[in-house]
Specification:
The protein is an alpha+beta fold and 321 residues long. Among the domains are: 86 residues; 87 residues, Cupredoxins -  blue copper proteins (Immunoglobulin-like). It contains 8 helices and 12 strands. The strands form 3 sheets. A 5-stranded mixed β-sheet has the order 3-2-1-5-8, with no helix packed on it. The protein is elongated and about 95 Å long. Bound molecules: copper (II) ion. The site of copper (II) ion has 7 residues, from loops.
Amino acid sequence: MSAAPLNFLTSAGKRADITLPLTWFVLAVSIIVCLIIAVLLWMAVKRRRATGGAAETAGIAVERNSGAGLRWITIALALSAVPLLVTLVWTMAALAHVAGPPRRTEMTIDVTGHQWWWEVEYHGPNPSDMFATANEIHIPVGVPVVVRLHGGDVIHSFWVPQLAGKTDAIPGQQNIAWLEAKRPGVFRGQCTEYCGAEHAKMGFEVVAQPAADFERWRLAQLQTAPPPGNPQQAYGMQLTTFRCGLCHAIRGTDAGSHYGPDLTHLMSRRTIAAAMLPNNPGALSGWVQNPQSVKPDALMPDQHLSGPELEAVTAYLETLK
Ligand SMILES: [Cu+2]
């Protein structure tokens, strides 16, 4: 079951724990009700099957219309009200539990939905604790994390089925979601509000880590990019700042735009292009040269670099650990 990354019938988080039993209950009740109706219908048809054509059918209908069945209707209504009532009360209680973040929260992050990727910003007590990343959210295990959701362009929706339900990310408004993972792991998320051509290719991952690993990751993300180590990387850095800095930031270099994903620690991420490609050198240089073939209409144009230019850019990007 864990092989299906968006499987919402397993839970690894506090919020999913609350909604999952309700999901199973409603599913079970629905199946049972459908079965009961099907059986009753089948029995009725079998018992009263007419053999004498239209006249007999009419006769049966008139003959049986004595009002004796009304009692059964009352009983059935009363019976069906019970599971409906249970569902109502349970839903209200579950909503009350998952809606707001718990009172005691230690961490708040900002997540912005863009066509078609996710910007993730971390903060701390000092301005120097702030950094941005993309499409990969790290959280410490067992800590409730408040996620302030924003819409960068159109309405998106933030969903990590194994951790929490859906919350919309709306331009001009701040919605609050929260995540709390029970165990370490990588949990796949997805945009679930149609937001244009590449909506289906707008995924992300939540990486839940033990506190010490998370802290190590956070400190590494705060670093600026290292200087290039050889002439090819230096040439790559020059090209990257010039060609890509219009849209991307690499902290510590002149590339400072936040139009596209922050690339400062690109190589620390498991995937690129909003969880669409594995992050390896082949996929990376393929994406840089021809993003439009992976995600047609993505807001990164094909780059038309020469062979040596692409090699240098890739060599430089690979230093962004
Ligand atoms: Cu979408």
